[in-house]
Design a protein that fits this description.
5-stranded parallel sheet, alpha/beta, Rossmann fold, 10% strand, 405 residues
Amino acid sequence: MSSLLNRNKTSSSERAESVLERLPSFNLLLVADTPSERDLLPKLIKALFGVEDVNLTTQTLSPQTPRSNSRITIVTAPSTSTAKEYIQAHQGAPLVGESEKEVEQRERKRIHAVWVILGSKEGAGVAKEETNFGGIPTLLVSASTKPASSSIFSSWAVNLRLSGVSQDLVPVDVNDLKSLAALSKRMETALVDQPDLRLLWVAAQRVSGDEKVATSIRKGMKLFSVAVGASAQPIPFIGGATGVGTLTLLQNDIVSIYNFPDPGRILLSKTLGNIFYEVATGLPVKWLVSLVGLSVISGLWEAPGSARTIMISIADLVLVLDALFYAQAQRPTGQAITSEEVKSIIHLYEHGKKKEAGAGIFRRDLVHAKLGKANISTFNVWKSLKREEAQRFLAETIEEHRFRG
């Protein structure tokens, strides 16, 4: 992933969609060694990633990246030994004599995680050495449409531990959204020491809104300091991020995490952007004066106001996208969002219900008040630059005002 400096350098000359297209897919290797386990894969993949247009063959080991969700690439293998052969061929340092193009192609096929699908069996035949994939995060997934009882499942898990298998056995009901969301969370946890891969995973999955909210907040707050020092207009011969440019980056980043089926790029347009751009353009400005001729060359956002503005903008984006994610979960898999749907949710956010006593309401003015001067002092947010403190308060505010149906 490119640095913020490179992204600022190219964002003005590239369309927003090209920025998103550079986000790599998450490469997941599924090991299913019996027909019953392989039969479960289409349901599992459809439920987790919202796709149907993928050929899950275990014979060719061919990476499959569905058009309906380009953030995930699936490879299926008929055995752990075959899976290891594939990994060995596509991992590791460049080989002697490899061209740059060959290195790039191999990197695109590098496996980020392995799931050993056990079906609704105890996995007694799984040996310790079979689950070692050279340090690649691995889950043992007991997938089924009729999960075993908790006592039976616990017995299976204990037997695996006694046989020396270190990975936890994860139960998954492919028909239950909460169960699928728990599996997604286990994958995110397994990637805790690899933040780049964790971001790719959260962007790929389409079952857990909680993960997307948390990741969006973390990702958005990385622009906190940039926004504080942003200028109101481009500064000639100096460069740097402008306030509106910073918010464009924010919109691109957070929309990419939600990974909606959005062929019309509705979420990258002003349809969504206008909910926070007006806040940014209304900020007080401190003007800079050139040393040559004492002419005004640009203006900086007032730092305390810009600190609050980046938090408000993150909240607006996350709350609207989270509500859209909730609405999408009630609809057929992979159905593209519409401009009318987005506008409807924005209208609800801007003109929500009146506040009830003690209730967190999905309503813009209440969110902005919570993140305003009365609750966030200049000292706490700007002078001390306590980004972690600001991020924690932002997360609490978003959780309080999330759309609940």
